[in-house]
Batch of 3 targets.
Target 1
Amino acid sequence: MTSQVSSPAEQADGAGGAVVGGQRTPESPGPKEIRRLDRVIIRFAGDSGDGMQLTGDRFTSETASFGNDLSTLPNFPAEIRAPAGTLPGVSSFQLHFADHDILTPGDAPNVLVAMNPAALKANIGDVPRGAEIIVNTDEFTKRPMAKVGYETSPLEDGSLAAYNLHPVPLTTLTVEALKDFGLSRKEAERSKNMFALGLLSWMYHRPTAGTETFLRQKFAKKPDIAEANIVAFRAGWNFGETTEDFAVSYEVAPATRAFPTGTYRNISGNLALSYGLIAASQQADLPLYLGSYPITPASDILHELSKHKNFGVRTFQAEDEIAGIGAALGAAFGGALAVTTTSGPGVALKSETIGLAVSLELPLLIVDIQRGGPSTGLPTKTEQADLLQAMFGRNGEAPVPIVAPKTPADCFDAALDAARIALTYRTPVFLLSDGYLANGSEPWRIPEVTDLPDLKVKFAASANHTLADGTEVFWPYKRDPETLARPWAVPGTPGLEHRIGGIEKQDGTGNISYDPANHDLMVRTRQAKIDGIRVPDLDVDDPDGATTLVLGWGSTYGPITAAVRRLRLTGLPVAQAHLRHLNPFPRNLGEVLKRYEKVVVPEMNLGQLATLIRAKYLVDAQSYNQVNGMPFKAEQLATVLKEAIDD
């Protein structure tokens, strides 16, 4: 979905939703009151088989086409099919949409749609008093409630009195709506998520045509199922319009002032990263090769890139992580823009081959979509705990540049940046995303091709060194004096045959060398090459009078920025800076850090960036850490930062 918007606006993420008395408009479907809000946070929750991710995704797509700014947080179990009706099996999808610039999926939902008792119990702790709760009453029977510890029905015992409770027999209404389709009750029940989607679409005046088109395309081979889902969707809409329980519907205007003029679409981090890799290969005029082994939450990149053979993309699903990166490194040797995708456990397996890529000095992108660890840890939850692994997780001195995107849409630009570094400096590069960015989504301004960087490289084509006797030869490790990059010679180029392998190379010739002085020189040269990579200076958002700097990296950008905005609205000055390049650091980082009395580093780990900052710059950086598998909340960070400022 794409939409046109114009003009930037500066508003605080999480500002209160102003309500305007409902005036009936000509396009209103009925006489009910319409209230206007500036933002809404909705969470769909149910069993992992209830289609909550699809429901949230469709609501998000229609919201994007309407022109709202948005941010999403899918949250689902690691099990392929967790036990039905249990707390570990709850899947949810949270969407924050607004008429202004926002940065996070929101701290707490204004609306919770709970498809069963487990969904209610797992999420009620996040729901503020006065919020709307829509529950599927058909599931609140004795056995499902007992599964999650409800001795009495929360719909009847007064425990939900602080909320605006809407009991709706979603299953019964869906089955009744589909009685003419000849479906079994079990088959009909599967469409209850579409009934819920229709109801919420009515409540918030979302477009409907896109969802109906999507359903017809998704079930093109089963047109009866497609029409059944559409009928359930329309039944949900009509229920909202006709029932007395929903006396009010809401409007959230498009975010017409939130963004620069352009064409926008909703995009997830993994999709943006995939598009960035394709764009990088096109701008480099190189074939893109992905050697990968499926692993959550990185697998979607493999799935997406496999669809784009028309752009010269080749994807290889290997038998294991080691084979995946081995094939990718071979493709790099052969002259391709080579990529391997994985998560933390896969990085551990790939570490020896990453060291080989450092020694061979070939361009290779290692995309690590971080998740909770250690070992297999929390496959579907997010974390930022692979920074030190990316930095040091190899034997010997094997420095690798590290790039980290800050938002789902920024994954596109980060992929281009990582490719630039890899191709220019002939080095493997880590691209550190995480599960929050990978699965979350936001509007993305589709760039003009003419605005993309030129990444074209020149392969070695002839001899580059003259011996003392006048013989012209090819030295594979003769370096560019500016970048220290070695020449990239495609195999089969006449006269450019050279030795390859993991044993230490002789400077210049690339021959095997055990000479101590040569090894010292090569180790220092490889480090100097990484240290010399050109990255932009760190930008600092600093109002007058700030004595505290909040320094972040990766996906903490949204919550940090939202928290900083909240503090500034209360009159507290606080500066903010966010790192994309973690190795090497921006050259002005040390000077920036010295300006402030306090430096606070929020991270979804136990202080890995703070450790690097303290070691390199001797700055007493204060860590604020969270490792619960979920992103920071803006209010939580705002409280911590206020305490740091007041201390």
Target 2
Amino acid sequence: MADTKREIERKYEGSPTGGDPALPDLTRVPGVSGVIDKGVADLDATYYDTADQRLAAASLTLRRRTGGGDAGWHLKLPVSEGVRDEIRAPLSDTVPDSLSALVRSRVREAELVPVVRLLSARDVRHLVDASGALLAEVSVDRVRAERLSGGTGVAEWTEIEVELADDGDPVFLDKVEKKLRKAGLERSSSKSKLARALSDTDTTDTKKTTHTTKKRVKPAPAPADRTPRTAGDHVLAYLRTQRDAIVELDPAVRRDLHDSVHSMRVATRRMRSAFRSYGKILDRSVTDPIGEELKWLAGELGVGRDQEVLTERLTTALDELPGALLTGPVRDRLRTWSQARGDGSRRHLIAVLDGSRYLDLLAALDGVVTDPPLLKAASGDPSKVITKAVRKDFAKVSARVDQALDLAPGTDRDLAMHEARKKAKRTRYAAEAATPALGGPAAGLVKAMKSLQSLLGDHQDSVMAREALRDLAAQAHAAGESAFTYGVLYGHEERRAAAVEAAFPGEWESIRGGSGI
């Protein structure tokens, strides 16, 4: 069973001319009342990756470690600068399934193999406050790295690591750093021990040797220039961002982190919309089949998400009702109804992410951004080509809105408003991709379409809520319970929908009059 620990830490090394780093007296760091020597622990860690180092390229680390107080398997996922989530699993001979699943979007079907072994002598000290509570753990790590695949290099170094205590204030790390810098220490130029080990034991460079490495040279910045210049450049930059989002969100979806499913679903929709909006730039005979697979994935992601949103809406409405309007076990029935509809959706989603169809889609997304099916218009002036595409989408929104406004309230108008919402969403995504090229006018259209999408989305949510309330009322009636409260909530949803329909014409006139595209 895996568990997660949020890790906030900083690593330090000696100055380029100062040799190995030495730990200064930390008792004078503000807030520190004592420094407790916890002794030396011998750690033996083997790091796993694909032969082409896909995890390292994404700043992910997977290791099997013995020694110390947290022996076991550790997967570290980057959160932000200096912050990682460390997901742990018990010791075993092979990579635990719970961890290999979390790197599947990166690894795909490649084998995870040992790449580096790190032997560390960790001299640990605890910084504590006046009450004896832990503020941070400081360690002096003397490391020996041995390359296990991709070379036979060996490297040795010493570094200092400062890890904030659980629920600690990151500002405290600034105070410790100030003291360390005064002692001549610098932030490590490597993001992790593994990154340094891979760099220092890389025997593919003929200038490197396999003997112990004492000094290091900071890597030069990558020379690649991806500044968009053509219409195709801008669209590909947008597509690349969405592809990266899907891959990066995969572990979060598997861990059921807040908003992760919604965010991945949005990325799939953005990418599919871009394929359709910019069909003059990318060959749709290639992108349409991929778009259908993105639609499939969005649908799978939406099963549990839509139920969650609907339940939250009904629960909030129920909480706002006066007690006199609550009759029967309404809350219990709503909870049971929601759980029954949601049962199995999460297991199903994980099965989808583990399936070959999903992995094939990821491969197709890689292909479309690395070897894009560009058409002649892709080399054109962004201000002309992209503007034309966005205007075409906006015209489709206009047609759908006019159709909806011409209909009387009822089922047909509900459907027309829903279709207008979908077209507004597509235009919003097209304008998002266009913003780097077109600037203010595109950004203004994004804002306008987001507002329209929100208004029409509230209307559609009301339609779905009323369908659910009819279902709940029927269940309650069949069980001999009062259906009164469901009727009250139904009337509330009708009023919300009517308010949206009343605001719709004015909102649209404001948007149409202010469109600068």
Target 3
Amino acid sequence: MVPKKKLTLALLLALSLLVPLASGLPVVEAAQQSSHIDAVLVVDDSNSMNKSDRNKISNEAMKMFIDMLSAKGDKVGVVAYTDRIQREKALLEIKSPGDKEDLKHFIDGLDRGAYTDIAVGVKEAVKVLQDGADPSHEPMIVLLADGNNDFNKTSGRTQEQSDKELNQALDEAKKDGVPVYTIGLNADGKLNKASLGAIAQKTGGKSFVTDTADDLPQILSEIFASHLKLKIVPIQSITANGSYQDVTVNVPNANVLEANISIMSSKPVEAKLYDPSGKEVAIPSSNVMVSKSRTYSLIKLLKPDQGDWKLKVKGVAKDKIDINLVFNYDMELTMDPVSSKTYSKGDKIDINSYLVSAGNKVQNNSLYKDMNAVLVVKDLDTGQTSELKLGNTGDRFSGTFEIPDKHNYEIKVRAEEKSFYRETPAVKINTKSAAAGSGTTASPGDKDKKPFPTLYVILGAVGLAVLLAAAYFLLRMWQRANQGFVGQMVIEIRDENTGEKTYPQYKKLAAFKGKFNLHQLLQLAPELRETEKIIFTPGKNDRIVLKNLSPNTIEKSGRAVDASKGLELKSGDRLTIPLIGVDQTILLEYLV
């Protein structure tokens, strides 16, 4: 259980995981580049949440999570569900503050509905990642729910059907390396803790429980830190006295990428910031960004200077302020390659592990100074795990692992200090000999018997041709499924009763892979559901192809066109789609 907090101040740094590299790398002081995460935020938007989250603090927590993401490069999507998908936002790459504002505006527009089916939300979140995730990013799903289902009796949906779909979605998430972090909302005491715990456990995520929505920002901070291998470091607690109070924020070295200072309060809080030289830094300014919402303010420092920064906080008298730090470095931990040969009991393996940044060894003894490292050894035969302390030579961690028994092992190095930890990828050690033969013995005359080479050659050639054809077919299927889009779609919606049109919405298409439908572009608005059978796929030469599988009419240049087999669109083409179920018309323009 996370302690209740009237005001939480969390310093978080958006982590970037670098590809582990072998030894023999050039030496540098620090690096600028990092990788990113792809996150889908999934929220139960049923009426039962009116009791679990009366003030929609879950929305505020999701918005804070978005603000904690890197200034550029991360992707985030949103899925709001009941017993169907209420609204959805496909993965959007953060390229500017405007992208974050677009996501937060979307969250503010979420409405609640009747019934609940958790499988619907999780299944869609997995699909969103499969359709738009970047293979080089770290994927994750965050689920906010009470864990209970409430089916519409007229639908015929059963718990067994829901459980089957949920387990299938979780199997896919696990296969794709997507942990699901669950947050159980228990304000009304009806939380299904076991269900949410099982979801997290099955996918390698973590499960959290809270009786009050006020805990959600702190929980999301812990999820953020856990997923990205960060540490939350409690600094101090203060009680506001109505005047500015000083908080020291130490930036330990030049490898810090972004520092996010989140100030949570139901009452106004003022803040001032001073750099290590004592100079006041304007909020916002060139290297300081600020985001504000109903319940929080977030200050983001980009590549802050090393040293003690001073944060002056002025809160309402007697409010408690809890301060936490989470440090992120643009570094990873790598280990020298281990031979793939089969080892024997008693063999010794030299272990050498290094900090790397942007593919280079980090030459900064101060980073190693206070760090401890261990070799984590898991016996794959018994399941037991042990640790071997490694030496710190100032520029690496070293030690020797002696094979204790004729078992198979998995080893990795973990290095940490109070505000930082990293792990190398696990490496398997084989100590068992190759499998014995089949046990059959050739008869003396067998060596004189010759096979029929012509028949074997023919069969082999046919088999190879079939394999090549199958491989080509699968390759083409994969290419089609992962082909990207270019350009953007300009969308307007005209009310046929009043003649009024909405402001143009510019929807970038780069986040989609393979195909998408018009309903997704319309943010899955329930009243526009009939557009889900109007499908777009990539075309050649920066064009897209529209395929109409719905009863709706597609009009181009004022004339109805048959798009049932595909209609190619080039930049500047405009379409009109009158809707059948509502008195509205969709106006589209494709631009490259």
